[in-house]
Write a structure and sequence with these properties.
The chain has 312 residues and is mostly helical. Helix content is 75%, strand content 3%. Helix 1 packs parallel to helix 9, helix 2 packs antiparallel against helix 3 and helix 3 packs antiparallel against helix 8.
Length: 312
């Protein structure tokens, strides 16, 4: 570590979520159940969309892509956090910390872009239905996915470029359960005020602008639905309400963490915990309960998996 980044720190120590053993036990059960449920639900969605020809449409392709990203979101910090709840001393290597930061930002930006793609898909379906298949072609869906991943990688590499050469030679305690870029910057053995401002400005602007653009977009779509049908189309409103709920779940934690003027350690931990294990579980649940086709497809997929397991 004494080479490229002049660092003497080989590992970082997490303070974790709480020092209370009783609360840690509750969190262990809660997080473990949610992690398994998140993985199961998202895998079922991907499997259902892949195997069911009726779901080979742009909306479900983007939904399966979102579920794939959610698998990464809940696996980036979830297993490590659950494992650390067993341990008195919670540590992560310097390289592991850098990798965690990379995947957090990569998956976060990719998910944001996918949510914007899903909003555009609903806009075309509701506001330009006659041109839907032409605009939302398979090529366009793949392009959305590639652009989302490319922007996610670019954003993450920019974040790492800010810290990879910083000297870490003293404090190595992070008051969290995962590697958080703002907290890591405060541990550097140099003045990082300007870097901290850049991180908050960069992430805060991206998150806030994307969030408000999505909200405005959904308001336009909702207005169009109400305008062209008396009382609104129940199916369209149900789908849109599911999309808006997922947007709120995905963006609110990021907005508080990166734009709140007076960060609070406990609040940040709660929001990070929600984003790590709760949101990846609620996303598929919300889309499934709000969509009859998705519910039917998941039931069929579940039956197929049960039958296959019995046969094998």
């Amino acid at each position: 570590m004494e080479g490229g980044n002049h660092s003497f720190v080989s590992e970082f120590v997490f303070l974790g979520l709480t020092h209370s053993w009783e609360i840690q036990l509750v969190l262990l059960v809660f997080s473990s159940v949610l992690y398994v449920a998140s993985m199961t639900a998202n895998i079922l969605i991907i499997f259902s969309v892949t195997t069911n020809p009726h779901l080979h449409t742009p909306m479900y392709f983007l939904l399966a892509s979102l579920s794939f990203i959610d698998l990464g979101v809940c696996s980036t910090g979830g297993p490590k956090m659950i494992y650390d709840l067993f341990r008195e001393r919670k540590v992560i290597s310097f390289g592991g910390c850098i990798a965690q930061i990379f995947f957090i930002h990569f998956l976060g930006v990719t998910e944001m872009v996918l949510l914007m793609a899903m909003a555009f898909d609903r806009y075309v379906a509701i506001c330009k239905p006659l041109h839907y298949l032409t605009i939302m072609s398979p090529r366009m869906c793949i392009l959305f996915t590639v652009v989302a991943c490319a922007l996610g990688i670019t954003h993450s590499l920019f974040q790492l470029a800010l810290i990879i050469n910083l000297p870490f030679c003293g404090p190595n305690i992070i008051d969290s359960f995962y590697c958080d870029l703002p907290r890591l910057l405060r541990l550097a053995c140099t003045d990082t005020y300007n870097l901290q401002f850049m991180v908050f400005a960069n992430n805060g602007v991206i998150t806030a602008v994307s969030f408000f653009a999505l909200i405005v977009g959904y308001i336009v779509i909702l207005f169009t639905v109400w305008k062209h049908s008396s009382g609104g189309s129940p199916k369209a409103l149900s789908t849109l309400s599911a999309h808006i709920t997922v947007v709120l779940l995905a963006f609110v934690p990021f907005i508080f963490v990166y734009t709140w003027p007076h960060p609070n350690s406990q609040m940040d931990k709660f929001l990070a915990l929600s984003d790590a294990v709760l949101t990846p579980f609620l996303n598929p649940v919300i889309y499934t309960f709000r969509n009859k086709e998705m519910k039917a497809a998941i039931k069929r997929s579940f039956r197929q998996l049960v039958i296959f397991r019995k046969i094998s």
